[in-house]
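Running this now, will post back.
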Amino acid sequence: MSFLSDNGVFSKDKIDYGSSLLVESIIKNKTQEYNNILDVGCGYGFMGITLAKMLNTDVTLTDVNKRALHLASQNAKDNKVKYKVIESNCYENIKEKYSLIISNPPIRAGKEIVLNILMQAKDYLSSDGELWFVMRKNQGVKSTIKHIENVYMCEIIEKSKGFYIIKAKKR
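Update: finished.
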């Protein structure tokens, strides 16, 4: 697989370790088939496109950054996956339900945005759907888990180099 990147998108020069770890963890630890994937804050689309290709499913790529969405669309075409691209701030333009929602949430956007991405995901998950996300220990992963545990059953799937991979299912 190959990916185009450019200025103005997260981790433009190389694939972010946390994003790579999230993809590897989902592939290694999946316990169900995923009918469709939503990649929230997709950037140039590495996570969603890679998972769609490896799991042979559709992906919806969403971001607020128009440049990122243009790159994600091109990358999805180049890597021959079935996809939709939706410009959306969090979930405002999302209408469907998904069996897998993934995110490497934009920490620099602030804790409120990160928590919105994680907490609102429940409204867009299918009944047995899963939310998977990656966060660094020093970015408040433990307090984030505490905050969302009243809505989700959370499981730490992997810890590596300060990154935590979290799988969450609706209670």
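The beta strands are 36-40, 58-63, 83-87, 98-103, 125-136, 152-160, 163-170. More later if anyone needs it.
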